[in-house]
Amino acid sequence: MSFFDRFSEDLATVRAHDPAARSTMEILLNYSGMHAIWIHRISHRLWQNDSTKLAARTLSQFSRFLTGVEIHPGATIGRRFFIDHGMGIVIGETAEIGDDVMLYHQVTLGGRSLEKTKRHPTIEDQVTIGAGAKVLGPVVIGAGSAIGGNAVVVHDHPADSIITGIPAKSRPRTPEKKKPLVDPVEYVDPAMWI
């Protein structure tokens, strides 16, 4: 996927998830979650090379300062990832996030171990995580699930689950509550950015 196609897809993702997004220029200038994702892509590439790991961490900390969103450069993030009201987001080094995932503010994808191993969550495709939720440890959240606000998740949960509580428990997501698949995003002509 080309840079412009990916950029266009990012803009369309914001428009699809946030009815308050009025223009492309507004997204470019004011969406800190999007800024954090763009900077993460650069820091993640730097992280892939041992000689640039320090630069990757420094860039990620600069992004944290600018946006209030902390994404470790080692985290793996899929396409059409959206952070709404991003302040206070923390995504750990070994976190893996699938496609079409949405996070609200104050979400933590953190660890429960100090060992140098897979210690952060795996979030499969089309998962929504509510404000203040904490997903801790190398747990797997199945595709199509939704985690409620302020839930504390420390165990795996199957696909198509509603996950709530402290500690979180899940129940099957009913078909009428399941969000539809995100349609493929079309290219946005740069002339439409304003």
TrEMBL record:
GO terms for cellular component: cytoplasm. Its EC number is 2.3.1.30. Pathway: Amino-acid biosynthesis; L-cysteine biosynthesis; L-cysteine from L-serine: step 1/2. GO terms for molecular function: serine O-acetyltransferase activity. SUPFAM superfamilies: Trimeric LpxA-like enzymes (SSF51161). Keywords: Acyltransferase, Amino-acid biosynthesis, Cysteine biosynthesis, Transferase. GO terms for biological process: cysteine biosynthetic process from serine. It is an enzyme of class 2 (transferase). It comes from the Bacteria. It catalyses: L-serine + acetyl-CoA = O-acetyl-L-serine + CoA. Belongs to the transferase hexapeptide repeat family. PANTHER family: SERINE ACETYLTRANSFERASE (PTHR42811). This is Serine acetyltransferase. It comes from Rothia amarae. The gene is cysE.
